[in-house]
Amino acid sequence: MGLLMLLAGTAVQASQAGAQGMTSHPIGYLAIGVFVLAYIFVMLEEKLHMRKSKPVLLAAGIIWFLVAGLAAANGDSESANEALGHNLLEYSELLLFLLVAMTYINAMEERQLFDALRAWLVSKGFSYTGLFWITGILAFFISPVADNLTTALLMCAVLLKVGENSPRFIGLGCVNIVVAANAGGAFSPFGDITTLMVWQKGVVNFSEFFVLFVPSLVNFLVPAAIMHFFIPKEPPKQAEEKVIMKRGARRTLALFLLTIATAVLGHNFLHLPAVVGMMMGLGYLQVLGYYLRLSFERSVKKERAVAIRDKNERLLARLDNAIPFDVFSPIARAEWDTLLFFYGVVLCVGGLGFLGYLSEVSTLLYTNWNQTAANVTVGLLSAVVDNIPVMFAVLSMEPDMSHGQWLLVTLTAGVGGSMLSIGSAAGVALMGQARGHYTMMTHLRWTPVILLGYGASIVTHLWLNAELF
């Protein structure tokens, strides 16, 4: 009842259309409070064991009920509905895009492509120094295609296998992997959700992201070069692991690359939303899945004959438990918590933007401040607050910036999360995977050198790409 009275009193106070400009109204303050409270729960995810999507989904609903009530009290529900529809359209495009990408990654994992790569690395007998650099470099170059979270988990599995006798090396290697994966994801639209948002928004074209390659490389190399001197000197334990990829693994990888090419070409030359090409790519995988199921019995029979001839007990055991490929299984195993979290963030930020808060923040950051300082601050914020809402807020503000500044904020939001273990999905995931070896304090010890790399990457971008500013 009190809320209804508050909404009713709004009609007298509001002078603008819809609910915009209501940043000083109690409903506006309430909406901010709901968002802040939800984000406190998100930041405490590891302590509370509550998935991050839950509080933001609840907050998104509350905020838009407040916004809709405020708009109705002002006699203008239409503008609120239009704003909500715009947010839902943005989210749906990104949801389908990410869903296809995650499905391909899960399909390659199910076909044991990543297990085969890990086994190959483990069996080569590299030193700790060699593994430190190999896992870091691979993380940097795989994350632009496979996303930083998947890449970090894969490389961490290698560290855990060969470094089990050296917890210190695992902790150091995990810090290096997080920095490398986040840096590699910053120069590709496919490397991180934030870069994907920038590309989908049309602010930066696909090929233009690659001018961030050298700054991103500097971001990785500066802290890695310093950490190099602290790598344990003792030889690692030798490990042997054999993995036989499942049928269709290489074809799945080829189709994923074809899917990326389809999305990029359709977006760049035909101006289609990138999601159209991605969904077409899901069709490629569906067709491959149909073929694999159709020829399943024949292929198993053929492989069994070879396994019996070669006395390959490992392959025989796998064939005994083999099941046909089902494309809907990788879809079901997509990171739904992340996708639903993204929904909550988009709607929360959209609701606060409708109330006028983003306009005020944009004025503060991009009018009252130097734009470079503002974009550097955005990166620092992303170390504490997830970079998804930070970047979505910047894109929603639509500040008038040069191309160089848009690339700068793309870089800083992408790599800023490396400064804390909780600042990126890769860091949070590795704290769980390497529990006890890689902790928040382990990462915090190296924050000064990571910050040095952050500053060096910004200076490199300002210098190399000066003509874009």
From TrEMBL:
<keyword id="KW-0050">Antiport</keyword>
<keyword id="KW-0472">Membrane</keyword>
<feature type="transmembrane region" description="Helical">
    <location>
        <begin position="252"/>
        <end position="270"/>
    </location>
</feature>
<dbReference type="InterPro" id="IPR004680">
    <property type="entry name" value="Cit_transptr-like_dom"/>
</dbReference>
<feature type="transmembrane region" description="Helical">
    <location>
        <begin position="276"/>
        <end position="294"/>
    </location>
</feature>
<protein>
    <submittedName>
        <fullName>Sodium/proton antiporter, NhaD family (TC 2.A.62)</fullName>
    </submittedName>
</protein>
<comment type="similarity">
    <text>Belongs to the NhaD Na(+)/H(+) (TC 2.A.62) antiporter family.</text>
</comment>
<feature type="transmembrane region" description="Helical">
    <location>
        <begin position="56"/>
        <end position="73"/>
    </location>
</feature>
<feature type="transmembrane region" description="Helical">
    <location>
        <begin position="88"/>
        <end position="107"/>
    </location>
</feature>
<dbReference type="Pfam" id="PF03600">
    <property type="entry name" value="CitMHS"/>
</dbReference>
<keyword id="KW-1133">Transmembrane helix</keyword>
<dbReference type="InterPro" id="IPR045016">
    <property type="entry name" value="NhaD-like"/>
</dbReference>
<feature type="transmembrane region" description="Helical">
    <location>
        <begin position="406"/>
        <end position="432"/>
    </location>
</feature>
<feature type="transmembrane region" description="Helical">
    <location>
        <begin position="119"/>
        <end position="139"/>
    </location>
</feature>
<dbReference type="GO" id="GO:0006814">
    <property type="term" value="P:sodium ion transport"/>
</dbReference>
<dbReference type="GO" id="GO:0016020">
    <property type="term" value="C:membrane"/>
</dbReference>
<feature type="transmembrane region" description="Helical">
    <location>
        <begin position="27"/>
        <end position="44"/>
    </location>
</feature>
<keyword id="KW-0915">Sodium</keyword>
<feature type="transmembrane region" description="Helical">
    <location>
        <begin position="210"/>
        <end position="231"/>
    </location>
</feature>
<keyword id="KW-0812">Transmembrane</keyword>
<keyword id="KW-0739">Sodium transport</keyword>
<feature type="domain" description="Citrate transporter-like">
    <location>
        <begin position="39"/>
        <end position="414"/>
    </location>
</feature>
<keyword id="KW-0813">Transport</keyword>
<keyword id="KW-0406">Ion transport</keyword>
<feature type="transmembrane region" description="Helical">
    <location>
        <begin position="339"/>
        <end position="358"/>
    </location>
</feature>
<dbReference type="GO" id="GO:0015297">
    <property type="term" value="F:antiporter activity"/>
</dbReference>
<feature type="transmembrane region" description="Helical">
    <location>
        <begin position="444"/>
        <end position="464"/>
    </location>
</feature>
